[in-house]
């Protein structure tokens, strides 16, 4: 009988997690000062976004009821794809049920034995999973290291059996360190080697300059640059999308419709989520994005003003900042102590951190007022320092 073996294995895994300080729970920030969620612009609760979602649910029902290729495509899906194209100045878009499934779908659709995917070492789990499932040959480049990307491209070109199709896979803004990828130089490298560039804009769409890192880098109309995004962060809704540019965009979209398994075999994005994201696009303008950047700088400056935190504050290119912690246990205790004070922060521990160093991650939000935000950051700094002592 197999059941006792499973019970024993589960108990062993739980013991290991507890010993290493890696136990997680499904938590909520409800009622707490929010420095942990990805609702960067505060749009998930905006009246117009909620009304759009409610109206769509009343009009279309709670769900799409089928996959996009089996009668599940609604007018709101088409409208959202058109809105994303206008916002990011891209030529074609395809909406998925989540950012995770968008990454899985596009990578699997571009994979196969003739493909080589070169991933940045800090690529998100969804990109890693999609690459592994794709059937492509895989390589990993050192984080944001153009020389290493070049080395791997040259190695493929000079090999006895080079892969004819090469894709570089990066994030625009990385979720742990918050640092930005050198998109313009990566795109130039792709042009030099005849490769494609996939940019995950999960942390930059509607949250960075011009509303899109690809657009800000002058790459929105480049056919060799594909991007994915989630609708659940700055846009405050749910879902994901693949965004395409240049003259080849319609053909590539058609390829995804016919080959992306997470598009073909997954129920379409709910109409309420699609309508909410579409309404959020109209609200995600320069003023809100500017307020987000201002609050991110405020958090950075206040934390860096504490000598005890010198060298531990990692201020990124977007809304995410983090503070290095000595152990996973210290990070977990700090997060718990702050929650008891009414402040929600994110606790990042292995395996979620690419370098194995645990962190307290703080997320800026556009709607936070300076007095309340300053008081919360002072409490964060004080609690981290107390945990270290």
What does this 3D model show about the protein?
The protein has 389 residues and is of the alpha/beta class. The protein is 46% helix and 15% strand. The strands form three sheets. The chain has a seven-stranded mixed β-sheet with strand order 2-8-7-6-5-3-4, sandwiched between helices. Strands 9-10-13-12 form a four-stranded antiparallel β-sheet, with helices on one face. A hairpin with a 4-residue loop joins β9 (313-315) and β10. α2 (47-60) runs antiparallel to α12, α4 runs parallel beside α12 (271-283) and α7 runs parallel beside α8 (183-193). The longest helix is centred in the last third of the chain and has 19 residues, at 286-304. The protein starts with a helix and ends with a helix. The model has no long low-confidence stretch (mean pLDDT 94).
Strand tally is 13
Strand order of the largest sheet: 2-8-7-6-5-3-4
Structural class: alpha/beta
Number of helices: 15
SSE run = HEHHHEHEHEHEHEHEEHHHHEEHEEEH
Low-confidence stretches are: none
Shape: globular
What does the largest sheet look like?
7 strands, mixed
Instruction: Write down the overall mean pLDDT.
Output: 94
Helical residues, percent? 40-55%
End-to-end distance: 51 Å
Radius of gyration over C-alpha positions, nearest whole angstrom:
21 Å
Fraction in beta strands: 15-25%
């Amino acid at each position: 009988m197999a059941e006792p073996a499973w019970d024993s294995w589960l108990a062993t895994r739980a013991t290991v997690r507890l010993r290493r300080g890696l136990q997680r729970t499904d938590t909520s920030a409800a009622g707490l000062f929010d420095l942990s969620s990805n609702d960067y612009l505060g749009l998930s609760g905006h009246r117009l976004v909620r009304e759009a979602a409610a109206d769509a649910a009343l009009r279309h029902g709670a769900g799409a009821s089928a996959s996009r290729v089996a009668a599940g495509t609604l007018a709101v899906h088409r409208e959202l794809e058109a809105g994303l194209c206008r916002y990011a100045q891209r030529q074609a878009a395809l909406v998925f049920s989540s950012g995770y499934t968008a990454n899985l779908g596009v990578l699997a659709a571009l994979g196969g034995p003739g493909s080589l995917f070169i991933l940045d070492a800090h690529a998100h789990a969804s990109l890693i999973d999609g690459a592994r499932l794709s059937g492509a040959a895989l390589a990993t480049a050192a984080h944001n290291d153009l020389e290493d990307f070049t080395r791997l491209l040259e190695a493929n070109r000079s090999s006895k059996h080079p892969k004819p199709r090469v894709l570089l896979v990066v994030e625009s803004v990385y979720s742990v360190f918050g640092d930005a990828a050198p998109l313009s130089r990566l795109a130039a490298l792709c042009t030099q080697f005849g490769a494609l560039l996939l940019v995950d804009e999960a942390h930059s769409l509607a949250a960075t300059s011009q509303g899109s890192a690809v657009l800000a880098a002058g790459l929105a109309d480049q056919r060799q640059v594909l991007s994915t995004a989630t609708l659940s962060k700055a846009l405050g809704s749910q879902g994901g999308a693949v965004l395409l540019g240049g003259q080849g965009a319609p053909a590539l979209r058609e390829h995804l419709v016919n080959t992306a398994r997470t598009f073909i075999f997954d129920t379409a994005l709910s109409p309420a989520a699609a309508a909410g994201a579409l309404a959020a696009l109209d609200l995600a303008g320069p003023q809100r994005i500017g307020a987000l950047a201002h609050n991110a700088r405020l958090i950075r400056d206040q934390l860096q003003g504490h000598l005890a935190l010198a060298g531990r504050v990692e201020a990124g290119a977007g809304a995410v900042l983090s503070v290095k912690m000595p152990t996973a246990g210290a990070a977990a205790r700090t997060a718990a102590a702050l929650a008891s004070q009414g402040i929600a922060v994110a606790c990042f521990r292995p395996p979620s951190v690419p370098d194995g160093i645990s962190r307290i991650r703080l997320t800026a939000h556009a709607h936070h007022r300076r007095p309340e935000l300053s008081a919360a950051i002072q409490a964060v700094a004080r609690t981290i320092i107390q945990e270290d002592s």
